[in-house]
Amino acid sequence: MKLEFFPKLAMDGIRKNKRLYTPYILACIGMVAMLYIITFLSQSPLVESARGGTTACMAMGFGSWVIAVFSCIFLFYTNAFLIRRRKKEFGLYNILGMEKRHIGVILFWETLITALIALAAGLALGVLLSKLVELALLKLLQSGVTFAFSVSVPALARTAVVFAVIFALLFLNALRQVRFSSAIALLRSESAGEKPPKANWLLGVLGILLLGAAYYVAVTVADPVSALFWFFIAVILVIFATFLLMICGSVVLCRALQKNRRYYYRADHFVSVSSMTYRMKRNGAGLASICILATMVLVMLSSTASLFFGADDALKTRYPREENVTVWLDGAEQLTDESVPAVRKALEATLQEHTVTPQNIIDYRCTRVYGNLLGEDAQLVAGYVASSSLCGFEFIPLSDYNAAAGEHRVLGNGEVLLYAHGIDYCGSEIRFEDACTLRVAEQLDGAAFPFRPLSTETVPTIMLVVGDPQAALAPLYALRDENGEELPSTRWVYQFDTGLSEDAQIALLDDDGGLRDTLFENSNDGKAYGYDAQSRASNKDDFFGTFGSLFFLGALLSVVFTFAAVLIIYYKQVSEGYEDQARFAIMQKVGMTRREIRRSIDSQLLTVFFLPLGLAGVHLIFAFPMVRKVLTLFGLQNVTLFAGVTALSFVFFAIIYAVIYRATSSAYFAIVSDTERE
């Protein structure tokens, strides 16, 4: 055979199957462009030098790996549709005398041509769009922009290598399928699996149990740190459960529809239900894939958008005042009224030197200890140990409370004022093992309580105002962990506003002679053994850089996953259209009109098409509590904002999904009707 024979045959194969190859090549181009853009952003000097740019570059670097792995999985999935459609053609070549090695050469040229087109067009598109996307990211980071255009050679090389490997793997997989299939098996590949499937109740029950377990974990997770760990476990359970339920449940659904005589024996339902019944195993897998992608898009878009739009609230939650100082004290004896005047006086002197008058001051001492709260009994633990009953207890001197609240309360021996944050507590007392028992004199209203737990605390907190902290807490300080360390920790919190500009706030904290230097000079006098000083302004860039880059990455990945879902739906419709073409041709010969064909198609699509969207909505509802807890690790406490963004994300995706339904149903109709018979 002449050398140019195989490339020509490969081009003819691509051209004759353009309905399948065109979206596949477009998907490859899109994936190549997306990988280049994200890799380009991860290495962009402009992004790195922007506010929070280092975090943004790290996020883009992570996103590039996600895109690379997803591209490999997704292209394998979509390539399977092409190979399934082409097997009949390859089988015919084999019967006519062409050897398997010659078919392998055709596959090589088809893969090479597709790869060259995808890489050339994808890299060109990525280079053209990279600057626009870079400007959008810089805008989200609230940074200045420059219109200088650049091309990243390392990003080009990395993208080319990644997709060269992917296309090589695709070729080897296709070659394997052809090599180990007989000519007859290749010819009958399109009709393989025509035996009606049976509902596997065992797998169906297993799917229900897995999904129930995932939902239970999602709604009962104890705290944000546990939620972060269990989130990935729940995701794996949901993926397996979705595939099992979609495959088994769709078979049960079709069987139930067939048994319903009023529904089944109608012109617009009979053909559609019969067709679906014979391919529900493969159909269910496709629907499950669509459901998982839809859920990923909804969770990712709603969470990252909530973080971005709630960044200012999260910043103020994390740093209640413009300047935030925490000094750790050495033991319960430092809770006396003479424990912190020296440090406070030094800080006030520094403020006077900078002509700053502190405003909206938060000033209190507290001792914190962790314990598992069971009823009115608190079993103390050494530090943070994840548990559904874990609670933090903060003890505040009555003198600090009265000074902040402007009150003159008096407490008896063993009495406390109680404020519960993130937990409902109605007990009349709290017993701390054998150490002490404190009686609740009054439960305080949250709106009037002058203090809040530090936003870094991720567990429910009970704040207890005690009259004589030394006497009340001495038994607790006598307790030791397994290393002989005290269980409680004591600190002084001093936070205030300055009314200065952001640059001046940062200078007040970090310049020579500023607050940090003052704290350092006064932290080694035997009374304080550590400190932390943070300015809201100095952390603003990191907050907006982190949340802006996460939102940007979430939006890009949502586009990729949505595009993947669209392509899966399209291939599902097209491949099923070719399979159903002969059936509808027979039905038209016995009198079925084009209008009845359209009604039958709508019946078939509506029966199963919106199942993935509905199940994705259910997944999203049950994931909401867990995702909300995870977001608190980033400082987002605004539940209303998260709920609103989640609802809008679902509505937006549902509209896109409906548009996809209309477009793909038209493609299916064009194949099975007389308008475009191949």
Strand order of the largest sheet: 2-3-6-7-5-8-4
Estimate the strand proportion.
Answer: 5-15%
Mean pLDDT: 79
Q: What is the CA-CA span between the terminal residues?
A: 30 Å
Number of strands: 10
Task: Report helical residue fraction.
Answer: 55-70%
Poorly predicted tracts of residues: 193-197
Characterization of the model:
The chain is an alpha+beta fold and about 675 residues long. The protein contains 22 helices and ten strands. The protein has a seven-stranded mixed barrel with strand order 2-3-6-7-5-8-4. A hairpin with a 2-residue loop joins strand 2 and strand 3 (about 375-380). Helix 2 (about 20-40) packs across helix 5, helix 4 (about 55-95) runs parallel beside helix 6 and helix 11 packs across helix 20. The longest helix has about 55 residues, at about 535-590. The chain is elongated, with a radius of gyration of 32 Å. The protein starts with a helix and ends in a 6-residue tail after the last helix. The relative contact order is 0.12.
